[in-house]
Predict the structure.
Amino acid sequence: MSVALFLALTALLPRLPAAIAIAGNTPPFGIVMSSNASASNPKDFYAVQAGFRVHRLMAGSIPMTLTVTKVTEQLIVCGGGWTFDRRTGIEVDEELGWGVDYGITGSQLVGWEEPLEV
């Protein structure tokens, strides 16, 4: 995406719905991928485990830190009921029709922290 196109889309964000369209394995505009991810798959969240803190970016610009309460083979479940695809970090919400299977989402995980050892 060109810088001019990115800036034009960013200027329109306040007028757009909160949902961000996704296309296959391409991250939504405005979302920075995790520095914790592997070089071979920058969106791989399989290392995340229960107790980790994950960083969510809602609507491409609103950050939020959540605590992981459970992981399954396909999902990361956080306190407050937030659920994310474990491969991509894309938010999954069946009621809203959000997730990789639907091609649209409102947020995405962009990083994580392992729990501090005491």
